[in-house]
Amino acid sequence: MKQKLIVIGNGMAGMRTVEELLKLEPDLYDVTVFGSEPHPNYNRIMLSPVLAGDKQVDDIILNTLDWYKDNGITLHSGEEIVDIDRLGQKIRSRDGSELSYDRLLIATGSRPFIIPVPGADKRGVIGFRDIEDVGTMLDYAANHEHAVVIGGGLLGLEAANGLRTQGMDVTVVHLLDSLMERQLDKPASTLLKATLEARGLKFLMQAQTSEILGEDRVTGVRFADGSEIPADLVVMAVGIRPNITLAKDAGIHCERGIVVNDTMQTFDPKIYAVGECVQHRGDCYGLVAPLFEQAKVAANHLAQMGIGRYQGSVTSTKLKVTGVDLFSAGEFNEGDGDETLVLQDPSQGVYKKLVIRDDKIKGAVLYGDTLDGTWYFTLMREGTDISAFRSTILFGQHDVGDAGHGDASASVMALPPNAEICGCNGVCKGEIVDAIGKKGLFTLEEVRAHTKASSSCGSCTGLVEAILAGTVGEGYDQAPSKKGMCGCTEHSHDDVIAAIQKGELKTQQAVREALDWKNPDGCAACRPALNYYLLANWPGEYQDDAQSRFINERAHGNIQRDGTYSVVPRMFGGLCTANDLRAIADVSDKYQVPEMKVTGGQRIDLFGVKKEDLPAVWKDLSDAGFVSGHAYGKALRTVKTCAGKNWCRFGTQDSTGLGVKLEQMTWGSWMPHKFKLAVSGCPRNCAEATIKDFGVVCVDSGYELHVGGNGGIKVRVTDLLCKVETEEQVLEYCAAFIQLYREQAHYLERTAPWVERVGLNHIKQQVLDDADNRKALYERFRYSQTFAQVDPWKARADGEAAHEFTPLKIA
Amino acid sequence: MTDWIEIAALDDIPRLGARVIRTDTMDVAVFRTRDDRVFALRDACPHKGGPLSQGIVHGTTVTCPLHNWKIDLASGEALGPDEGCANVFATRVDGGRVYLALKAGEAAA
User: In the prediction, which pLDDT does A323 show?
Assistant: First the structure.
């Protein structure tokens, strides 16, 4: 018989928990949900747009009645629970009916705090919390003139803006001298007030409400100084209180909220709690992102998997008032010893402030231009050392070299619906906004799954995040502070790398067992990653698993859209002989290669080779002295060179010769992602070395070494690592840099984002400052190369993995 | 009536891998799971015709190599949120040999 799970609270936190639970263990429980409101679960954070008339109630329903039915969930909407009998394990609703449970989930949310002044119980005094409140406000807006909103915080301003949009005369009353003081510093708050005043809102600052006036119905508000203003409607938006009455009456330990541990369990082990009603490590949260993290953890434990832990959240805020761009996160008011970076452009209405401590971002306030909010938030959460780019950080991400969409500095939300956001998959802004609204999406992953936007090359990720943030406001669930590698595990790439290195895990099975993988086989995302991590950490010991490689690496060719393959033989340093070219021409004739092309990496690509022909093509090339160019792999690709001083009148060093040496040292090496090198013979830089993963620019006195460049999706110019004097040094530093990248970067992370993530200083410390460490890295790279420099083409031409290339024959 | 055609020894197909059978009208991908179950699908992803036989197999799912659609090996259905279905063919393993059912109608489909 199934166990019985009762959920008290039909809101976002409770239903998210049920959704997460259904994903993990759909058949474990009979689920019954009680909600005091007469609606299915809706998106509470979208009430402001409903009030402002930007959306209808139907638009914000997250789970339709059919959803409850399809998932076998019994929903009692409009039915309040009045008692929990913990000993008898049952609950009683207002109409007296009782129901027993095996597990209980409390998700009763919060209530608006009504200031206890005389008259606060009059008709026309309401909070701003649910659909009913919005209905009341819309009624008043249609029939009355004066509205007073008490509270100049996030919620109060959204309510005030909505009522003003509906045509009311609105006065915002605030106890303090600056609006949204919990999210904004003084200058940003002043800008915000000016913007809202220009829209017709009135403000009474430092005003203490002393009485609500009127007979039965509200007619006005009186303040402590004796002044009065007229009011037909008073909205109290001074804060929320966790709704703990039910839990408290049942004897469950509560402080400000229902106290839960890291597994979201209350002091009664059969009872869990999530959402705004809980208090975790002393904090209560009123934003959606933390609630969703809690829901995930609670579901995991309800599903008896027992691995997730909730460790608190760092949150950020956006105000959902159309046309007002505002973002805040962390500690935005500087403390002792903190530094602040400020950019102020009053005529453009732009204000940006970052609070810095120990070279790390501790808080941010952005007004007018919030495009980089998500970037600052990520830097803050990950504790990135920003010293390398602090001089330009306020100008935004595109100014730090991570270009690509720098022209999007005009707010993304101002773009028309038909603006193309994702160039790879042809997804327009309108489609993304629609999907977010209709399907109730909150995370980048969900938007990717449903629209494909930013799911290919990823360069539009920032834009998609901005649209997500702009559409769902603070409900936007920014990636949790620690992101699982894929759906199979909660563990991050760094966790997995550390476990492999420190736990001496040497097989994929061992990793998946040690880290509680959800799927025994892993998936198409984590298998190649694990295969790489094991290969990079245990060279010579780990047996490469062909079935964990993407087809290109398994077949050692690039799969093309028609299912044929391309073949690119390696040409060291781009040098070739007449015999080489003749051999390639012969192969092309013999196998009727439809097209040949000179690649950007200075070699020749043969397109349209049938898979069955690959071993024979390779045999001919191998006989002529070629090895695989690994043009298909997360591996060392090419070393591009210019003519150099043997020929060029400007050349300062033998760039071609050095390129050949570098390629001979590095070819065959598997990497987290593809890796390209170049050597230019002089600062004219004809080999374009400053957009490569590792680039050498020869100068008269030696060699400049550049790292972390990228000429692809996002053009990024390299950072100068150092200057050295000899070719031997170039080889040593190059190998050390590569090995550091191989050991520490995440799978599928190019050097450009890796360098930005860990900071150039980290790389300099490991490769420059610590000579012993550099030598050790160099030695580890050379050691791993003794296993890697085996030509996969020759091996397969000689019969290895023949099953890969031959179809089965019907017996 | 089902005609069972003997196509290979089980061990000719790599675990968590696939092999291709050429018929007159199409390619059929034959998959083998970790626990040695065998499934067969038309070797064309319902999305853009990608060769499913070249994808990564995990559980009873294959991920298409072209655009990462996940296809259920038993039903041929794309797993949400994508929508589409690849043709499924019956298979049978008997005495270490793999048999495939290609009905005339299906083969021509």
Answer: 66
